[in-house]
Amino acid sequence: MATTHALHLATPGMARICLYGDLQRFCRRVSLQVASGAEAVRALAVQLPGLRQKLNDGWYQVRIAGDDVTADTLTTSLHDPLPPGAV
């Protein structure tokens, strides 16, 4: 009898990304299935032409799951796993 081996791959939950101010010309809200903030930014930059350049040219406040991210904690916070239902 053949044995079926199934890999248990954890799928990330849905996260809602909200853009404000001049970034709203790209979109206001979008839900993505991502595991981290860095993955969300990368996915948006691929899907929305011009967003990467706009982010590079500007200065923006970043908030993950309702908490402000400082310049000192940006790299760590972006790569931390998102909590369920993160906005």
Please tell me about this protein's structure.
This protein has three helices and four strands. It has 87 residues and is of the alpha+beta class. It has one domain (14-79). It has a two-stranded antiparallel ribbon. The chain has a two-stranded antiparallel sheet with strand order 3-4. The longest helix has 11 residues, at 37-47. The protein is globular and about 55 Å long.
Total beta strand runs: 4
Percentage of residues in strands: 15-25%
The overall pLDDT average reads: 87
Largest sheet: 2 strands, antiparallel
- Taking pLDDT < 50 over at least 5 consecutive residues as the criterion, the unreliable ranges are none
Shape estimate: globular
Q: Topology as H/E string?
A: EEHHEEH
Instruction: Report, as a whole number of angstroms, the end-to-end distance.
Output: 47 Å
Which class best fits the helix and strand makeup?
alpha+beta
Radius of gyration: 16 Å
Number of structural units classed as domains? 1
Helix content: 25-40%
